[in-house]
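fyi for ur records
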Amino acid sequence: MKKVYVKEDVCIGCGLCEVYCRLKHSKSKDLIKAYKKEIPRPLSRLRVDESGIVSLSVRCQHCDDAPCIRACLTGALSRDPSTSLVMVDEERCIGCGTCTLACPLGVPKLDTSQKKMVKCDLCQDEELPVCVANCPNEALLYAEVEEALA
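which gave:
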């Protein structure tokens, strides 16, 4: 399964990955409307963490042994058998946040307007996840594990 990897040495913490993720998950698909006028406001499914001169984009890694799935009280989190992605069933999600507590990266976040958890879905309807496609420094790589290590 392909995943998004971060090249920390070239990430400048610009946050464009967050911007394009938010835009991707907006209703209007218009940057200004998504940030200023849409209600509820769309959420980015990732975050940029910074510590001193180091910054990196953090998102769901769709872990092989995903602790978030085991922690989910309602079974709203599950692995899609065809893609191997960890997905959220919004009908079953009650927004309790146990998945965030169980996640080693603290990735799932609460959409307070809908009281549901949201997380990275790797933009399944796109050739490349939008965060990768729009990273100005090519700090994000979408690849299989073997390709990323090379």
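Residues 3-149 form a domain with the Alpha-Beta Plaits fold (CATH 3.30.70.20). thats all i got for now
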